[in-house]
């Protein structure tokens, strides 16, 4: 692969995308980034405030939809590579209504793949999830050759996009890699996901809703470790390959909630056991030895370190999450950017 100088990032105003942009601007001095995001409820330009000024000439934002074929074809042709984060990402929302998940995750990915082909092919990193492998029992871990068996409309839509990427590699020789990561946590995560929801509710002395008995298990990775993995996949991943990333930090949901309450010195009486998620996957665990071996990637933040940093971040950024929770962040774009496109 020739050296990437100009990178198109999709979904860079969301949780992982914005952490990726911060991390890449800091750690890869030669790279110029364009962020394409349609700013759904999950996209927040506050996450990227000041970057145009701080990294003059190296970062720009374009408001637009990945399903806009003309726009995406142009942007892809102006860049050397694409890192594709844009998606509907919340399992519970997909249970209520799957349609936007198909529109963005499946059709949107197809639009980008067509754009990549139209400009003669480019490096394409498709950011996927361990949820495409389905659920585990109490033993074992997902490897890259675990069969795809998604259980929620969200994971089915991600699996659909993975299959399209695979087909474009096989049929059209597109230079694409797929990454599949476990549960991320860290700064800028939308407080609908477990960890930021529990932290912010606890800070507001509101009930903490735990699904079922709280015994389901997730493997938690600090978001910057995932972002570094994606960069390694971009720089050194072999076209057509899949790379798993995980945090080697399996925890029961209830243990995560207890740790948050303890750190914030809040009472366990805030916990409320609520109806279980429909089709709730029991356990996820990731075998990430391939990424360690072939990309030289290593997890660098333990769960305890990452949680300390994350809890401190939410304590120090109350206006950020309060704006998100009240929806006031949606006014920010028009106030900050006026009516630029
Ligand atoms: P997020 O929901 O926080 O952000 C998604 C971003 O995509 C938002 O900024 C949103 O505005 C943008 N977007 C949505 N639809 C769009 C469209 N049609 N056109 C342009 N932009 C659009 O998601 P996240 O948690 O940051 O996840 C990012 C990616 O990583 C997703 O593909 C997700 O499947 C994957 N992933 C997430 C996790 C996790 O734990 N959060 C783990 C593994 C993989
Ligand atoms: O594994 C990677 C996936 O992790 C990503 O692909 C998804 O985009 C991301 O949302 C995440 O999916 P989960 O469904 O695992 O994450 P969530 O934070 O929604 O839930 C984590 C666990 O906590 C899960 O077992 C459900 C439980 N939970 C969640 C919420 C929001 C609760 O008990 N109460 C809650 O209120």
Structural notes for this entry:
It is globular and about 60 Å long. Helix 3 packs across helix 5 (99-118), helix 5 (99-118) runs parallel beside helix 6 (153-172) and helix 7 runs parallel beside helix 9 (253-263). Helices cover 42% and strands 17% of the residues. It has 13 helices and twelve strands. It has helices spanning 15-27, 51-54, 69-77, 91-96, 99-118, 153-172, 194-203, 223-236, 253-263, 289-295, 303-316, 318-326, 332-337, and strands at 6-10, 32-37, 59-63, 81-84, 123-129, 176-181, 183-185, 208-211, 217-222, 242-245, 250-252, 271-274. The mean pLDDT is 95. The two termini are 33 Å apart. The chain has a domain at 6-184 and 222-248 and 283-301: Rossmann fold. Nicotinamide-adenine-dinucleotide is lined by residues 10-11, 13-17, 37-40, 42-43, 65-67, 85-87, 89, 104, 108, 127, 129, 158, 181, 183-184, 190. 2'deoxy-thymidine-5'-diphospho-alpha-D-glucose binds next to helix 7 and strand 8.
